[in-house]
Amino acid sequence: MSLIRKSNTGKYGLVYHIVPPYGLMNDPNGLIYFKGQYHVFFQWNPTDTKHANKHWGHLVSDDMIQWKRVELALAPDQWFDKSGVYSGSAYVHQNQLWLFYTGNVKDEEGNASSYQCLAVSEDGIHFEKKGPLFEHPKGFTRHVRDPKVWYDARVDHYWMVVGAQTEDLKGDTLVYRSEDLLHWVLNGSISTEEKDFGYMWECPDVIPFEEKDAFIYSPQGIEAQGERFNNLYQTVVQLGKFTIDGKFIVEEDNLTEVDAGFDYYAPQSFQAEDGRILQYGWMGIPEGKEGLIPTIQDGWIHALTIPREVCIQNGKYLQKPARELWDLTTNVQKIQWNTTRFESVFSSPTQVWTVNWKEAVQDKLAIQLRNEIFIQYDAETQVLSVSRTDWETGEREIRERTLQSPLQHLNAWMDYSSLELFVNEGEEVFTLRFFTEEDSLDFLIQQTAEQEMEMEVYSMKESGFIAE
Ligand code: FRU
């Protein structure tokens, strides 16, 4: 096997993804570059593999490749966050690291409330809690959470977006503004339109790009529509403009799912040292069948995705693996062929591979990975599908996406029990976990047309990824 495992994470443990050392991980939180280091915080239950007792776990890195675990950043130990330190974001202010998060509180009678809170640190490791920042407006349930903060040079003040649920049980996003990050004024709902898209929106994020802006959020309560919205909960992106009045004006009918796979939720963006916008997602989905994930027997559950560079190009939201990650790869093998069938065996379940077709795939394509994942494409419909074994029922299950352009490029990042498949340079990504009993490392690709293609297969370096 390729990488040395630093965590006792068992058969399905991942080696170049951020995983919890034990317990449950969910959303990425507080992503930031601060005083020469990248910080990744994450929702963490250190005492169980269930959704309870949420803390902020914490890792730091100089290069986004080698990570070091540091002491946990925030624990649920105050009256305003005693039932859980929920998701939020980070901002560097006055040379300090400011964390904005949601404090969750449930009393003995089962009444719950939430508070948007602040915690501040000089060194990026030890945080002083400053308590709740404001009261929530009337007309909303207790489900108000996940503050994301950024600075807007056009108006010279800060914005905060917060996921919310209205009293008539509709998902919404509240927008606040502030001149000093301490005093916040409610600006209103993000949308100018009547919203009726699910009963709760979690983890909103506005990413200002040059050409257009992206509004990303994770709605709950959306019904499946053909190939769309087939997971229990979704993460969607809308393109448009975040105005100086704090509204997001969407372009017509451009709502898409950020990820086309099975396991993706609650992403957060941040800015790299050089200005690139990067994004981590949670490689999981709450509730549903997560309680049956076999890693629970090894005392841990869930992971983050690899960091992805995101941008808008030709009006499309694109995601690519952060370029730093290629430094983890080594020993590339290049294979060219123009036959209809090619078979091989990977040397490890952590391999990364690309396939480039000289011309777009002309007919039908089928790929089998590790005897477990099947990727299929039909040039006539331009539909690409990925299927796996449902770990709840043992049946095959499938996700499909009609591509916006004909298939010409695939890039897969495999890590024991996860796959992130980037299609056509990031036009779509399929993210999934899979838990096969088999130890097969087989790879088989078949195409009905004899077409020229080149495959590159990379190994991952032995140098380790997370220092304990
Ligand atoms: C999304 C979410 C957030 C919340 C956090 C709690 O997965 O439900 O809305 O802050 O997880 O862990």
TrEMBL record:
CDD domains per the UniProt record, alphabetical? GH32_ScrB-like (cd18623)
- List the GO biological process terms: sucrose metabolic process
**UniProt entry tagged with the keyword Membrane:** no
Task: Give the Glycosyl hydrolase family 32 C-terminal domain ranges.
Answer: 356-445
**Gene Ontology MF terms:** beta-fructofuranosidase activity
The EC number of this protein is 3.2.1.26
Q: Which SUPFAM superfamilies match?
A: Arabinanase/levansucrase/invertase (SSF75005), Concanavalin A-like lectins/glucanases (SSF49899)
Span of domain Glycosyl hydrolase family 32 N-terminal: 17-321
Q: Which reaction does it catalyse?
A: Hydrolysis of terminal non-reducing beta-D-fructofuranoside residues in beta-D-fructofuranosides
Where is it mainly found?
Answer: cytoplasm
Record's keyword terms, sorted: Carbohydrate metabolism, Cytoplasm, Glycosidase, Hydrolase
Q: Which GO terms describe its cellular component?
A: cytoplasm
Question: Where found, per UniProt?
Answer: Cytoplasm
* Keyword flag Hydrolase: yes
Q: Sorted alphabetically, which NCBIfam families does this protein's record hold?
A: scrB_fam
Entry-linked PANTHER family: BETA-FRUCTOSIDASE
Can you tell me which family this protein belongs to? Answer: Belongs to the glycosyl hydrolase 32 family.
Function (record text): Enables the bacterium to metabolize sucrose as a sole carbon source.
The protein's name in its UniProt record: Sucrose-6-phosphate hydrolase
